[in-house]
């Protein structure tokens, strides 16, 4: 599904001291299987986010090769690369939702952009909109919002949502194009424990019901251990090992923060 073969990513910094380029990644080789949740852990500056961005060719390798579904995105023409990226969804630490659009419009946005900038042009219609052109996108967006249990919030704006709700909307948006792969860049680092559990439960459901491969970057070891099958360990841009995850027993779920806090503080939770 995803293959890194001796991948190095180097940068030359202006005004840097002599000694050659800086390696964000150095000769990294790993593979992510179909329907696998694969983690990437490491300290800040270890190369985690660089590795993630290279999967959808937002960063290109200085040497080595990356193949996704058997395709080397770096070798494609820009137009073909954009088409391949539609098969890769991505969610971010800060949600990246548009504040002036409703939840439904945020989730439908990738479909509408593809339709207007790609699909219509391919049929010789330029960038003109047709009456009802967005209706299929809205239907698909509602389906994904229902999947992440956010259908009731479709008419709200992001400012009216909690952090966990925003991230579930972001997951719905990432899934609306039915990607084979979902890239997650620190998806829970700005959330409290209750909302972290909600987001991770959603990702586990994505894998279970859609068969999506998930590449999950996080510095939170408990998140990686609670969700992933395997995890790469990065240090200073080098792959120091791939851990087979000893899966934790599923944590008890709670209806509210108050219920969770009481359970923990009263000492009933290990």
UniProtKB/TrEMBL annotation:
SUPFAM superfamilies the record matches: P-loop containing nucleoside triphosphate hydrolases
Keywords linked to the UniProt accession: ATP-binding, Nucleotide-binding
All copies of domain ABC transporter, residue ranges: 2-261
Superkingdom, natural source: Bacteria
A GO MF label: ATP binding
Cellular component per GO, a single term: plasma membrane
Keyword hit for ATP-binding: yes
Record's keyword annotation contains Methyltransferase: no
UniProt xrefs under PANTHER family: IMPORT ATP-BINDING PROTEIN
The protein's name in its UniProt record: D-methionine transport system ATP-binding protein
Taxonomic path: Bacteria, Bacillati, Actinomycetota, Actinomycetes, Micrococcales
């Amino acid at each position: 599904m995803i293959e890194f073969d001796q991948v190095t990513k180097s940068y030359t910094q202006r005004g840097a001291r002599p000694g050659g380029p800086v390696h964000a990644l150095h000769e990294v080789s790993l593979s992510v299987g179909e329907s696998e949740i694969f983690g990437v852990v490491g300290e800040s500056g270890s190369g985690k986010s660089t590795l993630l961005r290279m999967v959808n060719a937002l960063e290109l390798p200085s040497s080595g090769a990356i193949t996704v579904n058997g395709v080397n995105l770096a070798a494609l023409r820009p137009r073909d690369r954009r088409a391949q990226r539609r098969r890769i969804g991505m969610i971010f630490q800060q949600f990246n939702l548009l504040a002036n659009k409703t939840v439904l419009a945020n989730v439908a946005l990738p479909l509408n952009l593809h339709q207007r900038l790609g699909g219509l042009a391919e049929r010789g219609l330029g960038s003109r909109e047709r009456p009802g052109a967005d209706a299929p996108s809205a239907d698909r967006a509602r389906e994904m919002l229902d999947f992440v249990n956010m259908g009731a919030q479709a008419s709200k704006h992001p400012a009216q949502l909690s952090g966990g709700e925003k991230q579930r909307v972001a997951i719905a948006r990432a899934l609306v194009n039915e990607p084979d792969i979902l890239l997650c860049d620190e998806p829970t680092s700005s959330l409290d424990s209750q909302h972290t559990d909600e987001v991770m439960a959603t990702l586990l459901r994505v894998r279970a019901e859609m068969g999506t491969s998930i590449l999950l970057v996080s510095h939170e070891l408990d998140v990686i251990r609670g969700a992933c099958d395997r995890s790469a360990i990065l240090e200073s841009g080098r792959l120091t090992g791939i851990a087979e995850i000893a899966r934790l027993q599923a944590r008890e779920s709670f209806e509210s923060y108050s219920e969770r806090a009481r359970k923990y503080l009263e000492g009933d939770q290990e």
